[in-house]
Design brief:
The complex is a heterotrimer of chains A (330), B (343) and C (385). By secondary structure, chain A is mainly alpha-helical. Chain A is built from 16 helices and no strands. Chain C folds into two domains: 77-162, no CATH class; 172-381, Orthogonal Bundle (MetI-like fold). With 385 residues, chain C is α+β, with helices and mostly antiparallel strands. Chain C is elongated and about 85 Å long. The chains are: A mainly alpha (330), B alpha/beta (343), C alpha+beta (385). Chains in contact: A-B, A-C, B-C.
């Protein structure tokens, strides 16, 4: 059991390392080095840049050294909590990202919860009542959910909201809370605004999970242990929940590891359409403005959050399947 | 011994309504189980043995359905008065049949590898059965489970009870399965191919165990198998099934020494024997089991029967009728046709 | 009924199998694997229908210029944001398709241009009419179009799906957009397929350290959120790249991450097949490794690869659309569904001119069709299952 956790943990570390390399690559990719760009930006905005300051910056990021040294210098700065400054906003990157990161998490986690909360019962129902009318309806709706990319769904819902309710249904806060400090009332306002983005983000994943759950459960329902349990005299409801559902949960949970990156991915672009104050629009703007420290840091953070989510799902999986706990596979 | 049977199956018909057509898995099977005796049901795969067992417990899955017949379970109350309940008429998801499943009639299944859920310990699965039928605490149920495991010959049961099924060997798992079936002192134990998936030595041990338990508890056993050897070793009475029908029934000695139905005779001929001439070919039954969708008309066995009578066996369906004192067979070698041709 | 367990074969295997097989079973037992798959696929009505839909879409891509009637790149400020125009098929009981002419006016209060149909001026639609010049398949210069008007100035008169802000005809742009949107998926999938089969195959064939390494790489790639990564890579493309360069760069970016699914399928099949008795039998018979792979294993996983590829295509199409929608993928003057949807980014604009969303429809239909087709293929891929 311990080796399983350690192995998963090492893999997570490795993934974070790879993501940091990719983030660094994103910072490096645009032509010209960023310190030059940064100083030019400072100068153009009227800040007096001393040659010492410029030289200091070059030293700090090791711009004269080979690329891998630069990478390690960057990592070193990050380890100290220095993520660099945003070229466009003229403030430390962390200041800008701040709340947006947590709001991104709030949206993504509620989307995952929504996905689970809906996919699990519907998947079970569809399998147990295979070929019923409701099963066909769910299958059909599921296919539509799968085929409509989340940002299109957001666009269409926004249009419908605008058209029929005359209201902007996007955003995460009511206008009066937009600039307000955090308070219980603001949190409640946030919670009230979460379902729509969660629904939009979760739809595709829900459709997929319903199909996975249904197929797995159909397989499990045919297994002899179900007959055994039935022959014991268990009630059908309890039986299905205790045995086949438990078994079908296994592949279900293992998809969480892929669901989370998928939802984070989707949240970037959906946030743009819905005008959510999350990290997505910031990333796009940073990329378009070639504000590379900001963009690189965002990619790094998103990557780390995803890896954490995946790691948690792995631990959940272990808790659910005793065969993994015993490190034996049949 | 000729008291009223504990379980009577009469003209049971269980059909599966699939897209391709109706499969008559059990098509008018009748037999009786005496208290404290072992009935062996024998036949090839697909003859309806397992479906019969599942029908008795009412756990036939869609698209299967019992469409006709009675399954009478006899009970004797404290005052010695007996009553009967027709299992075929109960709501398959209702409380009454669920109290009978596992409580009065228990099932040992043919797949020891997959008959347990891999997600729970064996203890969990046995304790659950006990608590479903008896109003006792978890601790008591656990003690009882350990006792049961010891009874079926599991070494160190107090440790084994917390193990997962995949940690046990096939033989041990089948023992656990038997322990679970016995946990509520059932009056009837249905063992569906209990030894098929096990190796030969383990098979013998499991059969010994079953016999020993039956002698001790005086319960009735229905053992379902395709293996004539198992029948010879275990059964008091034998029922031979072919394509969903009982073609012959009777006490084990009669079936083995004076088989009446050509199918029973053929089955017995095709058992390999160590006394056979070396390098001689094992007799087989000609042809193979027909596809479930094209059942032969008349006697279902006639296309493979070497004593078939043209114009008779392929037109009329024989009924199961007595031959001699305790034996029954459905064959026109012994009876005249009495009904109109079957479609 | 379940097949007999292994132990019972000794008893039952003696029966002569061939005697009672019916004609239908006979047909099944002599059919080739591909015939069986075709039979099975044919039963999946939705998949068959979807394959027709997809074929139609690719035909549209080929004949896009013919189906368009207005030059998709021609801007005209006086035709900005015209609403879709209904076609009237009958004129006084006779079949004579026509549209009403539009009269542009300026709203005296908002100073916006508004267009009103004039039922008095009927403009007859002509089939196989002359229109703008184009080269069919990039080779044969012609000006033939499916519909048009007398005089060849269709872009001034017909607006089946309306126009965008720059006055370009949406119907015509939608037709042209099929090309890039549908082929970029194919190109991306082809590249992913090469990577996936190569790496998945190596992984499954050799096992050991190489397998572990490739599996770790796949796991890492799959746990990285793709859109930010794509965005980062796409944003790094030099601004002065032409349409073709961007097209290939996007293809490469998409397939660099998209190959993992295919690699998993290939590896999974390889591992499963390696254990199969017929492969062992071939090995024992002294068949060479290459021949075992090509002759014995390939036929049984080819079908799975085709199914997996079909299921990977819609993802590619969604990805391209998403990137272009963000302005990081294909850029004007290239025309793809994503580029068209870029105009719909602003919800206020969409609320006033909902026809700008029309590119969403082909996206949804194509993705749905590919999903159904892929499902059908996957079911058919295992005809013995």
């Amino acid at each position: 059991m311990l080796t399983y956790i350690i192995r998963r943990f090492l893999l997570a570390l490795l993934t974070i390392a790879s993501i940091s390399v990719l983030s660094f690559a994103i910072i490096q990719l645009p032509p010209g080095d960023y310190v030059t760009a940064y100083i030019a930006q400072l100068a153009s905005s009227g800040v007096d840049v001393t040659p010492e300051f410029a030289e200091n910056l070059r030293q700090q990021y090791g711009l004269d050294s080979p690329i891998y040294v630069q990478y390690f210098k960057w990592m070193e700065q990050i380890a100290r909590g220095n993520f660099g400054r945003s070229l466009e906003w003229q403030v430390p990157v962390l200041t800008i990202i701040g709340d947006r990161l947590w709001l991104t998490m709030a949206v993504s986690i509620s989307a995952v919860l929504f996905t689970w909360g809906l996919a699990l019962p519907i998947g079970i129902y569809s399998a147990v009542r295979q070929y019923s009318i409701a099963d066909y309806i769910f299958t059909f709706v599921g296919f539509i959910g799968l085929a409509v990319p989340s940002f299109l769904l957001a666009l269409i819902l926004m249009y419908l909201g605008f058209r029929y309710f005359g209201a902007n249904i996007g955003g995460l806060f009511s206008p009066e809370y937009l600039q307000a400090d955090w308070s219980p009332a603001k949190v409640w306002d946030l919670i009230k605004h979460l379902p729509l983005p969660a629904l939009i983000l979760g739809t595709a994943g829900t459709a997929q999970l319903i199909r996975i759950m249904r197929a797995n459960l159909l397989d499990e329902l045919r297994k002899p242990y179900v007959i055994t349990a039935r022959a014991k005299g268990m009630s059908e409801f309890r039986l299905i929940l205790k045995y086949p559902v438990r078994a079908a949960l296994n592949p279900f949970v293992s998809t969480l590891g892929y669901l989370f990156p998928f939802i984070i991915s989707g949240s970037i672009i959906v946030a743009l359409v819905l005008g959510l104050p999350t990290i997505g629009p910031l990333l796009l703007r940073a990329l378009v403005a070639q504000d590379m420290f900001l963009a690189g840091t965002i990619v790094l953070f998103l990557g780390i959050l995803t890896v954490l989510g995946t790691f948690i799902s792995d631990i959940l999986l272990m808790w659910i399947d005793p065969r993994i706990r015993f490190e034996r596979r049949e | 011994m000729n008291s009223a049977p504990i379980l009577t199956v009469d003209n049971l018909k269980t059909y599966f309504f699939t897209d391709e057509g109706t499969v008559k898995a059990v098509d008018g099977a009748s037999f009786a189980v005496q208290a404290g005796k072992t009935v062996g049901i024998v036949g090839e795969s697909g003859c309806g043995k397992s479906v019969t067992a599942l029908s008795i417990l009412r756990i036939i899955q869609r698209p299967g359905r019992i469409i006709d017949g009675e399954i009478l379970l006899r009970r004797v109350d404290g005052a010695g008065k007996s009553s009967e309940v027709d299992l075929a008429r109960l709501d398959p998801e209702g409380g009454e049949i669920r109290a009978i499943r596992g409580g009065e009639i228990a099932l040992v299944f043919q797949e020891p590898m997959t008959s347990f859920s891999p997600h729970y310990t064996i203890g969990n699965q046995i304790i659950e059965t006990i608590q479903l039928h008896q109003d006792i605490s978890k601790a008591e149920a656990r003690n009882r489970s350990i006792e049961l495991l010891r009874m079926v010959g599991i070494p160190r049961p107090e440790r084994r009870i917390d193990e997962y099924p995949f940690e046990l060997s096939g033989g041990l798992r089948q023992r656990v399965m038997i322990a679970m079936a016995l946990s509520c002192n059932p009056r009837i134990l249905i063992a569906d191919e209990p030894t098929t998936a096990l190796d030969v030595t383990t098979q013998a041990q499991i059969l010994d165990l079953l016999r020993e338990i039956q002698e001790r508890t005086r319960m009735s056993v229905i053992i379902i198998t395709h293996d004539m050897g198992v029948i010879a070793e275990m059964a008091d009475d034998v029922i031979v099934m072919y394509l969903g029908r009982v073609v012959e029934s009777g006490p084990v000695d009669e079936i083995f020494h004076q088989p009446k139905h050509p199918y029973t005779q053929a089955l017995l001929r095709s058992i390999p024997s160590i006394f056979a001439e070396p390098r001689s070919k094992l007799p087989t039954i000609a042809g193979s089991i027909p596809h479930p969708h094209n059942r032969p008309s008349g006697c279902p066995f006639h296309p493979r029967c070497n004593e078939r009578m043209a114009g008779l066996c392929d037109v009329y369906a024989p009924r199961l009728l007595p031959i001699g004192e305790r034996q029954m067979a459905s064959c026109f070698l012994y009876h005249e046709p009495e009904e109109a041709p079957q479609a | 009924m379940s097949p007999p367990p292994a132990a019972s074969r000794a008893f039952e295997g003696e029966f002569d199998e061939a005697l009672v097989t019916t004609a239908a079973e006979e047909r099944v037992s002599v059919a080739t694997q591909w015939q069986l798959m075709w039979w099975r696929f044919r039963k999946h009505r939705l998949a068959v229908f979807s394959s027709i839909v997809i074929a139609v879409f690719y035909l549209v891509a080929i004949f896009a210029d013919f189906l368009a009637y207005a030059d998709p790149h021609k801007t005209e400020a006086f035709r900005s944001l015209i609403a879709p125009q209904p076609i009237h098929f009958f004129d006084e009981g006779r079949f004579s398709p026509h549209v009403f002419a539009l009269i542009g006016k300026r709203d005296p209060r908002t100073f916006k241009r508004v267009y009103e149909p004039d039922p008095e001026q009927k403009i007859a639609l002509r089939f196989f009419a002359q229109g703008y010049e184009y080269k069919f398949l990039g080779l044969f210069p012609t000006n033939l179009h499916l519909i048009g008007v007398d005089g060849g100035n269709a872009e001034e008169l017909i607006f089946l799906l309306g126009t965008d802000q720059l006055g370009r005809d949406l119907w015509s742009r939608l037709m042209i957009a099929c090309r890039l949107s549908l082929t970029i998926g194919l190109a991306g999938v082809t590249l992913s397929l090469v990577l996936g089969v190569l790496l998945g195959g190596i992984s499954g064939l050799y096992g050991g350290a190489i397998d572990t390494l490739i599996q770790r790489v796949i796991e890492i790639l799959r746990s990285i959120p793709t859109i930010p990564l794509w965005m980062g890579l796409a944003a790094a493309m030099p601004r002065d790249w032409g349409v073709v360069q961007v097209y290939f760069a996007i293809t490469v970016i998409l397939s660099l991450i998209g190959w993992t699914d295919l690699a998993r399928v290939v590896r999974g099949r390889f591992l499963a097949l390696r254990e199969e008795d017929f492969v062992l039998a071939a090995e024992l018979a002294g068949v060479g490794q290459m021949r075992i792979i090509l002759r014995h294993m390939a036929p049984s996983f080819l079908s799975h690869i085709i199914a997996a590829t079909t299921l990977a295509l819609p993802n590619m199409i969604i990805s391209e659309t998403a990137l272009s929608f963000l302005g990081l993928g294909l850029r004007p003057p290239a025309v793809s569904w994503g580029v068209l949807l870029q105009d719909a980014q602003n919800i206020q604009t969409v609320a006033i001119s909902p026809w700008l969303l029309s590119a969403a429809l082909p996206v949804i239909i194509v993705i749905l069709a590919f999903n159904f087709l892929g499902d059908g293929l996957r079911d058919a891929a295992d005809p013995y299952g």
